[in-house]
Amino acid sequence: MKTIHYLAASLFSLLxxxxxxxxxxxxxTWAPGPPSGWYDYFSDQRLNGCWQLIQANGRPxxxxxxxxMDFYGNGRGRYYYFSAGRPTSERMAYWCEENxxxxxxxxxxxxxxxxxxxxxxxxxxxxxxxxxLQWSTGGGVVTYVYAPSADPGW
Length: 154
Known about the structure:
alpha+beta, 8-stranded antiparallel beta barrel, 1 helix, 9 strands, globular, disordered N terminus
C-alpha cells in the first residue's frame, strides 16, 4: 500500500514539475522579430532577472499600479501586471541597441504578447540595482524606475 502512495506522489510531483516548466518553454517559443531597421541589436545581460516597478514619474508605486518585468535573457521574458484588479501576465520579447541620440546611450524595444510594443531609453543607477525606462507620449515624457524583485509567480 505504501508503494502505491509513493508512486502516486512521485507521479504527481513529475506532472507538477512539467506544468511549472511549460510556461518558460512556451515563453521561448513565441518569436516575434525585431523592429524594422534594428540590425545591431543585442541582449543586455544587466537586464536579466525580475524587476518591480517602484516609481512612476517621480512618485512611489504600490497596489494595483505595480508591475514586473522578468527578463530571462536572449530577448525573451514575461510582463506581470494587474488588469481590472486581477493579476495578469503576458509574454514579451525585447531587443537592445546603442542609441547615441538618446538620454542614456541605450534603447530597448519591447514587444508584448497582447499590448502595444514600446521603444524606451533605458539606463541603470545604484550599481545596476535601479533600472530606468523613459519614453515620450503625446502627454509628455514618462519615466519608470524598477528595482530587483522576486518573480511574482502569477
